[in-house]
């Protein structure tokens, strides 16, 4: 009797195992053809790069979710913010996260929006003269810090250009350098989104002293991922584009931001 049932049993097990494997293979996401290179730089709490080059933050949480849903694997390449865009534009990297959308960038990469932000005046001194517009800012003697790789559209670029002409612009590499200038009194105010300043403010214990003011001429700008059109083939780019859009629509990016940002730092943020 044992001989009678042993072979059919083994055959049945083989069929069951193959069925399970086939089901698993069918359920698994297809993934991208290769690892996707993410140009990674310090962008507030959206993306932090540790001393060991480990990337964390809202972007990392979000891309981990995209990886689970698509099967695509992401390789993080720590670089400066200015170099991050150069790598994507030249095809040496595939994705630039947490980037503001501009017409110039749209010529080299596909943009997928996650949210919108606007630059605001940020200062530590409540006794400073109230500034309610760009024109008022340009008529003051206030020295202003900006992050040199940031771009928030024509009104922002015009204001920065005029401040530079007047000799009152301090262009620095990152928000941490902005915090150092504000704390030392090297500048009176800074022009950047509070969400981009959150990490530097918390590290330097500046948050309780911050004063923020919106400028009506500075509209909200779309922020998101740029996908390189030169390094990614059409299939992988479309797969990532659709996965990112669906995850954003489900609220996944907003959830990641709420986990990583203090409430005050989201004053400039609105949904896409």
UniProtKB/TrEMBL annotation:
Lineage top rank: taxon: Bacteria
Domain Solute-binding protein family 3/N-terminal: from-to ranges: 50-259
Keywords noted in UniProt: Signal
Signal peptide: 1-27
InterPro entries assigned to the protein according to its UniProt record, in alphabetical order: Solute-binding_3/MltF_N
Record protein name field: Transporter substrate-binding domain-containing protein
Species lineage: Bacteria, Pseudomonadati, Pseudomonadota, Betaproteobacteria, Burkholderiales
């Amino acid at each position: 009797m044992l001989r009678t049932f042993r072979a059919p049993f083994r055959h049945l097990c083989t069929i069951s195992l193959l069925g399970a494997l086939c089901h698993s293979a069918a359920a698994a996401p297809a993934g991208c053809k290769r690892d996707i290179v993410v140009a990674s730089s310090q962008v507030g709490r959206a993306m932090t790069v540790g001393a060991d080059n480990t990337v964390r933050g809202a972007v990392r949480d979000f891309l981990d979710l995209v990886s689970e849903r698509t099967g695509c694997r992401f390789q993080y390449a720590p670089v400066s913010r200015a170099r991050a865009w150069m790598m994507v534009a030249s095809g040496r990297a595939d994705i630039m996260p947490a980037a503001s959308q501009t017409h110039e960038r749209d010529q080299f990469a596909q943009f997928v929006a996650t949210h919108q932000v606007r630059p605001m005046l940020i200062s530590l001194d409540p006794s400073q003269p109230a500034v309610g517009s760009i024109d008022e800012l340009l008529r003051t003697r206030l020295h202003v810090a900006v992050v040199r790789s940031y771009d928030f559209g024509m009104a922002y670029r015009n204001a920065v250009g005029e401040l530079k002409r007047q000799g009152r612009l301090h262009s620095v590499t990152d928000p941490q350098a902005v915090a150092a200038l504000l704390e030392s009194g090297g500048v009176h105010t800074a022009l950047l989104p509070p969400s981009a300043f959150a990490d530097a403010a918390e590290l330097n214990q500046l948050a309780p002293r911050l004063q923020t003011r919106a400028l009506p001429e500075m509209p909200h700008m779309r922020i998101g991922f740029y996908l390189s059109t030169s390094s990614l083939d059409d299939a992988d780019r479309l797969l990532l584009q659709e996965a990112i859009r669906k995850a954003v629509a489900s609220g996944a990016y907003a959830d990641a931001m709420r986990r990583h940002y203090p409430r005050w730092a989201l004053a400039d943020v609105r949904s896409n």
